[in-house]
User: Fold these one by one.
Assistant:
Number 1:
Amino acid sequence: MNNRAADSGTRTLLVAATLLALAVATASCATRSRDTSDGPADRGPTVVQVDNGNFSDVVVYALSTGQYYRLGEVTGHDRATLSLPRQLDTVSDLRLVADPIGSRSSYFSDPILFEPGDVLVLNVGPTMNLSNVAVRAGRAGTER
């Protein structure tokens, strides 16, 4: 009987250890719920800050998959903040276009890598070939 009690205690301990190992394995394999506090909806809209250093007024467009989206117009030697349409927050081929009114030359940026809520900074130069784009993470981030 004493031997049987020892086998029963060993068996109970073995079952408890197996259940504990199973619980640990399940917990480590479970997916954690994603923290949505930094998700696209919480980061705010993506904006384009335009610093127009050109004499001409410029019309600013977002260009994606061959389609132009007019963002707004910025007066010569002025600054403006324009909103990027939400449907463009996830595109991978976004370019910004600065088209001076009354001029034949325009600025087309390279494709821009950004995340929803970032700030796209478009600097329009005194001549179009001196224009550039920078990306700042979020509203208070640093330029990338």
Note: Residues 2-30 form one domain.
Number 2:
Amino acid sequence: MLKRNAILHVFYTFQDQNTENFLLQNTQSSGFTGLIICPTDSDIYSPEIMKLSLNRFPTVILDRSLPGLNLSTVMSDHFHSAYETVRFLISKGHRDIYFACGARALPSSMESRMEGFKQGFIDSGVFFDKNFILRLPFHDADELRIKLT
């Protein structure tokens, strides 16, 4: 096995874009040679992520689609994972299946999961009730911190 000198740093932003921008500024000025990022859920791209793209800084974005930015991405198949889950539960006789998500605009990954969730009902021939989607107000960073402690 080839040995390399590498250090892994993990930062958590609590879905706060200001914290994300601060951390990204500091990692670039601290000599990091590449980043793997799961960006905050926001309607607006982080200015620091846009800079990474413009500067061609080695960056991989996890589980988010950021169209227009020249960054590598690694995505899960959110649509089919939700779709197959619903189909499996329905095949076991379940009908009251709920999808919980935030009350604000959803990231592309969550939108794909929600579409797969709906399509799973439709393709199973089971009535889809829009009330099966629960929009919960848990995207506030301070509220999330409290829940995690």
Note: Residues 108-124 form the longest helix (17 residues).
